[in-house]
Amino acid sequence: MMSATASDPHGSVTAPVVVGVVGPGASDPAVCWAARTAAREGRRLRLVHGLDLTAAHAATGGYEVLGKGPTDYLREHGAEALAAARRLAHALTPDLPIDVELSEANPVSLLMAASSSAHMIVLGATPGVGTVAHLGSVLLNVVAHAGGTVVVVPHLQADEQIRQFGPVVLGVDGSEVSADAVAMAFAEADARRAPLVAVHSWSDLRFDRPTVLPDTFGGGDDVTALGDRLVAESLAGWQEKYPDVSVIRRIYLANPRHHLREWSKAAQLLVVGSRGRGGLGALVLGSTSLFLVQHADCPVMVVHPH
Questions:
Q1: Do residues 282 and 137 touch, judged by C-beta distance below 8 A?
Q2: 213: Cβ contacts below 8 Å, ≥ 6 apart
Q3: Is 30 in contact with 85 (CB distance < 8 Å)?
Q4: In the chain, which residue ranges form alpha helices assigned H by DSSP?
Q5: Are 168 and 195 spatial neighbours (Cβ–Cβ below 8 Å)?
Q6: Whose CB has fewer CB within 10 Å in the chain, the N or C terminal residue?
Q7: How much is the CA Rg of the chain, to the nearest whole Å?
Q8: Closest CA to 201 of 250, 267, 234
Q9: What does the alpha-carbon distance between residue 226 and residue 95 come to, in Å, rounded to a whole number?
């Protein structure tokens, strides 16, 4: 199985959509989103849960209570979480083929290994997300270091549902590493029959006070023209490949975090590259991507270069 590439953004049709399941109910939004996505694209859904038995034994010393050791409790909890996730996915998409895996491995190792052959890895954000600590080490490590595409689905209140309408929004920065993000954004917009909004900010600088500099410029301004040209070059060829996808371009002076987050309030999916235009090799997850994973109001797809 092969991951998606710029020439084949959706990858092999045998590549599954993989969901990292945490606990009963905790991963419900991610499971729902992944099940609908897999069904739409004719893929299998794979639900995985890592027990991390080595760490459990180290923490407890194998201590048993009433004949049960930590391994038994972890297995019961994991099996319950997977069974609940499978029931939910089946209720939403009855004809969807679903695989379940309960592994002894560390969750990060399990998901990292799966990322190289999966169509995408889907994870749910932790309730109360808003800082790196709240993201959790598993989610943060997988988003930063995965070998393919990772989608983070925001936590929802009980009466909320994941938005299934609105545009697919793409963050365009003109960097080489964002080419795969462009490809995936077009493929997702086409599959969802949604318009694609390409958002570009000329600078990564943040202006907290709107009086410092204007945030947008008129159509005849040089900055707008240059930004529009950069976006056009980044999208070149993909509009011809997906003629049914309507493309809207939005050029801003600065603060890509703010504008992409604002667009996430109306979007059904936000697509960004894993690193920005200033990306040092060590910064495997750019600051804008990290901010959006924490704060966006719709699922965020972080595309790593292949």
A1: no
A2: 207, 253, 254
A3: no
A4: 28-41, 53-60, 70-92, 107-115, 132-135, 137-145, 179-192, 222-235, 238-241, 256-264, 287-295
A5: yes
A6: N
A7: 20
A8: 250
A9: 48
Q: State the Cα–Cα distance between residues 271 and 290, nearest whole angstrom.
A: 12
Instruction: Please say if the pLDDT value at position 67 is more than 60.
Output: no
Identify whether the C-beta of residue 253 lies closer than 8 Å to the C-beta of residue 201: yes
- DSSP one-letter string for 222-282: HHHHHHHHHHHHHHTTHHHH-TT--EEEEEESS-HHHHHHHHHTT-SEEEEESS-TT--TT
- Of the ranges 11-25, 26-40, 120-134, 205-219, the best mean pLDDT one: 26-40
Residue carrying the six token digits 């199985």: 1
Estimate the share of the chain in helix, then strand, then coil, as percent rounded to the nearest 5.
40, 15, 45
- Whole-angstrom Cα distance, residue 145 to residue 278? 18
- C-alpha–C-alpha distance, residues 7 and 34, integer Å: 23
